[in-house]
Request: fold
Amino acid sequence: MGRAGAAGGQPHQIRRLLATSIGALPPDWGFISRWAVTYNLLGRAYLELGLPVAAEDALRRQLTIARDQEDFQGQVLALNNIGNILLRRQNVAEAQQAFAEALEIAVAIDHVEGRGISLNNLGLVAAAVNNYPEAIKRYQEALLFRRRVGDPLAEANTLNNLGDSHYALGDAIAAVRSYRLALSIAERSFDTNNQFRALEGLSQAHVLQGDNRQALARLEEWLALARAEEDLFQELVALRSLAIFARDLGDFEAARGYYNLAIAVARDLQDDRTEILLVNELTQILYPPGSY
Reply:
């Protein structure tokens, strides 16, 4: 019922997002420039509403305008946005082509920000096919340009990506180093999204190191931040992670407590699927296989 209501409200949400965004455009912008930005905003709105096919169509229209106008920075932006949508849809080959073309244009016009974005995204492509050494190389290259731009959110994001690839290779020390840098930058810039990512990554990397004390500290910090920000989704994920952590250590009493808290949050979010998952996991603790 809730999902149907959300879907029915999508056209209204898109119109509202566009009206607000387009109204904020400078009045001296030309007709074509306004159309290009409109397609970009439309693509982002569709993406936020979970409509990737419509988002890709809007962004390809933006790319066409950018090419017609020889707007090279606009091409870099559009190609990276299109590539991200393709990657979400697991169309890795086409995503790689879009990011590679964006990087080629960014290099040709010496667009520092575009080079950082494109290299970071090429790292995501490499990680998507489990080529983590290549992903690490791309992320490290991206960091050089992201630091030159001075965008702390972008830098923290790439550092978290780098930590993920180090973790995937089992290099806990390098993963911890990357996540700690990401966390430090995110805290200074009040970037809670990258703080959440870094804390989750640190908790997993510390488990890989066998440092359960540090892992628990990071999990508790993650939960505290989620509650301070009143972010129920992050609170839910942190509580489930704490439950799994306690379960794996054999502390079933603590695990049950965390699961019960997580189930309550899932109900608040009306997330039936996650609630069922949590109940099933809790049942495995209460009634392990072979116990009845």
